[in-house]
Design a protein that fits this description.
Elements (H helix, E strand, L loop, with lengths): L30 H11 L11 E4 L6 H15 L3 E7 L6 H11 L10 H14 L3 E7 L8 H8 L3 E6 L10 H7 L2 E4 L5 H15 L7 H10 L4 H17 L7 H21 L3 H13 L1 E3 H11 L6 H13 L3 E4 L6 E4 L1
Parallel strand pairs: 1-4, 1-5, 2-3, 3-4
Antiparallel strand pairs: 6-8, 7-8
Helix pairs in contact: 3-4, 5-6, 7-8, 7-9, 8-9, 8-10, 9-10, 11-12, 11-13
Bound molecules: adenosine-5'-triphosphate and magnesium ion.
Length: 340
């Protein structure tokens, strides 16, 4: 009997690998970064202090995935190390960051304590336990006060810092920078061929056999614009469109439609993590299509309720370009901004 709520799964065999929470078994085309990160972290297995690392690159290029992979590998290899993960967009202040670490390590303390007292609890835990602690700070450019990095390195924690912005740490105080002595690992946007292989791998575990032809996986790869998150969302959406039409195969038209949705979702997800001032800047650039830098600044100052300082303004524009929401053309004096 066919019911009203029957799902006619003609294409999707398993939707889980198409969701954000899924951790792929294989991280393709990240061998160089993997080796390098492992070499920086390795001393920790012998009980020594690891080298601090900075991972940077645009969205959806495997930075967080590689960190998760490393955490798993480490915890399968040794009991001497504990990695704690903090997303600095969700925990911007030093207090929030240290609280998150203390809570993840299940250290008994009073969360109402001041940051310095919490740090002392953390330090005495480090001294008491024989473990080394690696602190991973994702989206580190959102940190409200970089001094906390100094506190971490001074007390012997290993740091893995992650950002979309290559220049996230340029304004950091020289004293903090030298205490960090960071190794840098770049993640470039995937090429079409790399993306094709990543998407093919994902399609193989998610779709019924033969549901997508290679030539269409290639179309999805071209349209993902180097971002694996967008690529995987294109696969998911195009499969749903094809299933809605009762088709057994994904067609080019489904992919093109899915691309629009996936890019739209990406923009709104990213904007959702930004401040009102970032959003205002993005809105002005969207409205004007292409706007000279000086005009943008004037327009921003007119519209903003409480305009931010010049330095923060430059930082915010930098964030919008490094997140590839907008692009900047021309040299410093004649710079103009437009949508990607
Ligand atoms: N090399 C890869 N092989 C397989 N899957 C990948 C690869 N790189 C990324 N992905 C997948 O793409 C999605 C985004 O990856 P990830 O979250 O690691 O990106 P990111 O670089 O941290 O992006 P953001 O800067 O937006 O946080 C995840 O679902 C991940 O599984
Ligand atoms: Mg990430």
């Amino acid at each position: 009997m066919s019911g009203l709520f029957d799902i006619d799964a003609t294409i999707i065999k398993n939707e889980t690998p198409l969701t954000e929470a899924f951790m792929p078994e294989r991280l393709l085309h990240r061998e160089g970064q993997k080796q390098y990160l492992a070499s920086c972290i390795k001393p920790v297995i012998a009980g020594r202090t690891p080298r601090n690392v900075f991972l940077f690159g645009p969205t959806g290029v495997g930075k967080t995935s590689l960190l998760n992979w490393m955490t798993d590998e480490l915890e399968n290899t040794t009991d001497n190390v504990k990695t704690v993960y903090v997303n600095c967009w969700k925990n911007t202040t030093p207090h929030a960051i240290v609280s998150k670490i203390v809570s993840d390590l299940k250290i008994f303390t009073n969360p109402k304590k001041q940051t310095l007292e919490l740090l002392e609890d953390l330090n005495s835990y480090l001294l008491r336990s024989s473990k080394k602690i690696i602190i991973a700070l994702d989206e580190v450019d959102r940190i409200a006060d970089y001094d906390i990095l100094y506190d971490f390195t001074r007390n012997g924690y290993g740091l893995v810092l992650i950002s979309n912005d290559e220049f996230a740490l340029v304004d950091v105080d020289a004293r903090i920078k030298s205490s960090l002595s960071l190794e840098t690992v770049e993640f470039k946007a995937y090429t079409t061929q790399e993306m094709f292989e990543i998407l093919k791998d994902r399609a193989n575990i998610s779709f019924m056999p033969g549901a997508i032809d290679d030539v269409f996986t290639k179309v999805a790869a071209v349209n993902a614009d180097g971002d694996a998150r967008v690529g995987i969302e294109i696969l998911r959406k195009s499969a749903l469109f094809a299933e809605d039409e009762g088709k057994k195969k994904i067609e080019k038209e489904h992919i093109i439609r899915a691309r629009k949705d996936a890019l739209h979702l990406k923009t709104s997800q990213i904007l959702g993590t930004l401040t009102e001032d970032h959003k205002l800047l993005f809105q002005i650039i969207s409205e004007k299509q292409n706007i000279p830098s000086s005009e943008l600044h004037e327009e921003y100052k007119t519209r903003a309720k409480a305009p931010i300082s010049e330095r923060t303004y430059r930082k915010y524009l930098n964030t919008l370009t490094s997140l590839r929401l907008v692009k900047a053309d021309g040299d410093v004096r004649w710079r103009s901004y437009s949508l990607i």
